Amino acid sequence: MSNKKKIGILGASGYTGAELVRLLLRHPKVEIGLLTADRRAGQMMGDVFPQFAPYQLPQLVTIDSVDWAAAGLDLVFCALPHATTQTVVQELLSKAPDTKVVDLSADFRLTDPAAYEKWYGHAHHALDLQQEAVYGLVELYRRDIKKARLVANPGCYTSCAILPLVPLLKAKAIETDEIVIDAKSGMTGAGRSAKEEMLFSEVSEGFHAYGVGHHRHMAELDQEFSKAAGKEVTPSFTPHLLPINRGILSTIYVRGRRGRTAQDLHAILAEFYAKEPFVHVLPFGKTPQTRHVRGSNMTMIGVAADRVPGRAIVVSTLDNLTKGASGQAVQNMNLLLGFAETVGIDQPAVFP
């Protein structure tokens, strides 16, 4: 009889679902017991993603066919669209209340129901669970995550900006009204569904901004930055689409507070993350590239001085499918199930 924990993945036919399978296949302490994909039900994972053909995995099934009480799952990853997740998690936890859940959608990231309704266009359908959920950025909420039942995995853009900025806000080291986040993401951040604007000929050899002035991740940034600063913070944030598969790179412009220099900001970040396994602060003046983190659960942060005295440029990068989604979700799983935090996700970046 196996002592491994039994894991389910809902929405396994998407990019984040596939990334979860990739990571969990080499995780020594878990086994995949359930894979759902409503449109692909009846198929094997190797039919949807040929790289998984050599591995023994459960057949894909619909969510409606799952008997949660009988499934015997220790933890479930939800890689489903927002709004869909609320009702699914509500039913799951009502029938299997001891099951842990890591939700990769945006459904439980915002603590304020009014903010959720404003940014997502409808009322939240599981308010009790929304209040119970813990924001799953491990480096900031590790202690709370360990005791949680439902973890809201952060967004990819937001993780790339929150990790470098929250320590500076907590230290009151930067001006809160002069934060500019210029972010770029690879195409997998848009999901796997067929979309005309994501065709190769629509994206290749180009570069463009989107969601200008009203991207939904702004609500997540406002929430976490305001909490860290102890007052309302509203940063400028603009996302861009890069014609690459993986990666996010954020170039962030800040002004030091009360004479803090770029070197001071670098020192704060270096000390804050000195013992963190998945955040690496480069030497002052060095900046990271997306290729430095591809396929890994690592975030790299660099700080350089602007030519204008008092201003600094912070560059942060992560793989949007790993530390920005599924790798971070496994990091949360490790905490929830009492494993060493790095197990199964300590692979270095793939380069070249």
UniProtKB/TrEMBL annotation:
Active site positions: 156
Enzyme class per UniProt: oxidoreductase
This enzyme's EC code(s): 1.2.1.38
GO cellular component: cytoplasm
Keyword Oxidoreductase: yes
Main location: cytoplasm
Keywords: Amino-acid biosynthesis, Arginine biosynthesis, Cytoplasm, NADP, Oxidoreductase
CDD domains: AGPR_1_C, AGPR_1_N
Compartmental location: Cytoplasm
Pfam families: Semialdhyde_dh (PF01118), Semialdhyde_dhC_1 (PF22698)
SMART domains: Semialdhyde_dh
Similarity comment: family membership: Belongs to the NAGSA dehydrogenase family. Type 1 subfamily.
Role, per record: Catalyzes the NADPH-dependent reduction of N-acetyl-5-glutamyl phosphate to yield N-acetyl-L-glutamate 5-semialdehyde.
HAMAP family: ArgC_type1
Protein name as annotated: N-acetyl-gamma-glutamyl-phosphate reductase
The encoding gene: argC
